[in-house]
Amino acid sequence: MSRSIRPDAVLVQAVIAGALSFAHLHDLAAAAGQSGWKAWAYPVSVDLLLVAAWRRLRAGRDRSSWTWFAIALAASLGANVATAGLLDLHHVPAWLRILVAGWPALAFLGGTLLVHAPTPEPERELDEEPAAPEVEMHRTDTPAPAPAAAPELTPAPPKPSTVSPAVPAVPPALLDHARSIADAHRTATGEPITAEALTARLGLPAPTCQAIAAQLQLA
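The chain above was modelled as a monomer; its predicted structure follows.
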């Protein structure tokens, strides 16, 4: 299905304005001594510099783009005004001839700077949250050394019991009997009886005999 071509008023106006500006630039260049194809090259150079500066302004604002856009606009507007009857095209002044002759070098310089200028970075969206800066932590205090492990304590060997064995109780009657034996032995022999001899005479267990000998103070 073919699409119908609908005329746009703005586009038509742009074509008419461009054609008139192109013709004025051609007439001014021809009056300044640029004949033949050179007179047609001047409007092409001015319009290309104007478009290049405008595209650079659309990409991102910078001072150089505004400067070259103003220069190209002044050249185009100046040609339109000059051909409106304010300037005698049959007697062009010398300064205008110098400007027209020096335009190619100026246009080449402006186009080169616009093409090779660094592209400005696009602005970040407002809703984009900035990344948090990384913060490095550095301790200024010296960390305390770790406490040394306490040595294991070995249990002390059990102390030998110093409690003396229980002395068996000696009945008084048994103690009197042992004393009489000891006295009889002293009377008969003239010497005190020994503990071994008393133990043999009594015939009792050793602990009991030792308790009796201790009370009688026998050796």
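The chain has a mean pLDDT of 75.
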